[in-house]
Input
Amino acid sequence: MTEPVLNVEGLRTHFFTDAGEIPAVDDVSFYINEGEVLGIVGESGCGKSVTSLSVMGLVPNPPGKIIGGTIDFRHSGGKVEDLRRVSGRRMRQIRGNQMAMIFQEPMTSLDPLYKIGYQITEGLRRHTKMNKKEAHRKAVDMLKIVGIPRAEQVATEYPHQLSGGMRQRVMIAMAMACDPELLIADEPTTALDVTIQAQILELMKKLNKEKGTALMLITHDLGVVAEMCDRVVVMYAGKVVEEGDVRTILKHPKHPYTQGLIRSLPKMSEREERLYSIPGTVPKPGSIKDGCRFAARCPHTFDRCVEETPELLPLAEGHACRCFLYDSLEGGGAHDRSTTAEGH
Amino acid sequence: MLAYTIRRVLMLIPVLIGMSLITFSIIHLIPGNPAQTILGEQATPQAIEQLEEQLGLNEPYFVQYGEYMMSLLQGDLGQSLRTNADITNEMWPFLAATIELTLFAMIFAVVVGVNAGIISAWKQNSIFDYTSMLIALIGVSMPIFWLGLMQQWIFAQELGWFPAFGRGNPRDPVETVTYFYLVDTLLAGRPDQFFTSLGHLVLPGVALGTIPMAIIARMTRSSMLEVLRSDYIRTVEAKGIHHLSVVYRHGFKNAVIPVLTVVGLQTGTLLGGAILTETIFSWPGIGRYVYEAIGTRDYPVIQSGILVIAFMFVMINLIVDLLYSYIDPRIKY
Ligand SMILES: Nc1ncnc2c1ncn2[C@@H]1O[C@H](COP(=O)(O)OP(=O)(O)OP(=O)(O)O)[C@@H](O)[C@H]1O
Ligand SMILES: [Mg+2]
Output
């Protein structure tokens, strides 16, 4: 068995605002194996970005703070470090070198005052012994790898001279320049139009296959998940509600929320009158103290759901779900309920 | 960049013409007969006629303006009525004194203000932030003559650290070439005199620089706070770049434009408004030169003083504008 590159246990990241404490990420655990693509899915505001920023050590502080958990990162040599415990200096050595991130907003994620070439070489020169010239050559190579035409020229241009798709390619080139073991991509294609989306995803898949970079892909698009991922973590209101390999999650989802997400996908074959959407909206983090956070929107809610908080239950090898429907305490009923739940 | 610079310089022509028109008109805005007003009630008709002749007041306006422009273009500002000396020559030592003081004050204001603003924003809500913003608040509301007098009292009279008056030791002059004493003393190979001149700059420079420093600190802080929250700063951090580089190279460069605007405006204000400080510290600058000319109704000197100060204002603006487009590649006019 391969060891995970990243193993997050019980991560809690809270925001301390005037309106009170917001548990944006509340006891989240997941792992990513070498060379694997892990999808993290969930509706807007469920804590996907905050989770990835926590791993990178980039949570805006104040108001945010990681208040619990471990973030174990395994270096290529096999050494494991808890990123929560390392010094800021050590973190800066890892960040951008062994671990890199691509952000949600390609239009604003590049410094408008520096040339593309400089922005790529900056990280290279920080983490490698390359001189200016070598770093520049490497930057141009990276631009070529991510499929930017006229790479030499683009290296001397400023971000405002490039389109959104081009900028996201530059971000990928920048993130991949130091050959990281882990690449975190936070909705890398949400801001782009559909044809460009496909190209960018293909590019990331290719880099993952060729370089063996583990990829943590955050998205709320299950189509992207089906295309790209090996395993999936489903988040809801700051918690993991289900995790499993991509086939299981897409074909046999157990959690009512995951089932709802999949039902709301437009299908080519069935012509439904109206697209299904999960009723209600995501609760504000912190607004639900006891019980399952999905209870108010769930079609299968029963008493226990609002009284107790469900745990993440292992259902099968590598498949777990946070729902009382599958709790053995419910005895024989669990099976019936699960079939009902799946029947939708 | 070059094309823009040329265009921007050409755009100055109408501004400069407008400026010259205004200063030219000053003498004609005097109610009644200008020559009479300048010479006073008891002037003889001959004297008035002679002055009108000298100032060319008998010619039609456009001829007068044409002649005025011609001499301006040759760098000739006319003669002082009081001393009969060439104003261009007479004014330069005063102007140099003011420029030297202003530059010193602005360098002080920028170095202290910018760094205080950057660190305040970076360590927002820290003790440093609170203290420096409190000092800045006091700084902007401090009457400058009061600050100057207090400084003289504490640092010159009580502690004796810095001289309170003038530009340097009058009994040991070095040859004046540029009239910038810091430059002249170095040209003369006299580092001792250089430090004497520098010492003389400290108190008036700090007094003059305090308000700009406070304004610059506040502007830098607010501009930095906005920039440090932006996505591209997070990207730089994600690359593992050192804090100092994140804050100064990426943060400050992006925050600098509004700061630059304030620096330009404040420099202009200091050049034109240093009279108070110059009086308190007996600084022989352009403010006092023009002020004395007003006392003796020396109109050509007043006109020239206004023209020169306005001209420097325009030049500062030009420099600031060119810096904008040099720093930000998105600025294209
Ligand atoms: N700077 C902040 N200050 C206060 N609260 C924040 C801040 N950033 C995030 N949050 C809280 O964290 C929660 C999760 O935000 P996050 O950005 O992780 O959502 P997301 O899953 O990435 O959503 P999206 O799909 O829209 O990107 C939000 O609901 C918000 O309440
Ligand atoms: Mg997000």
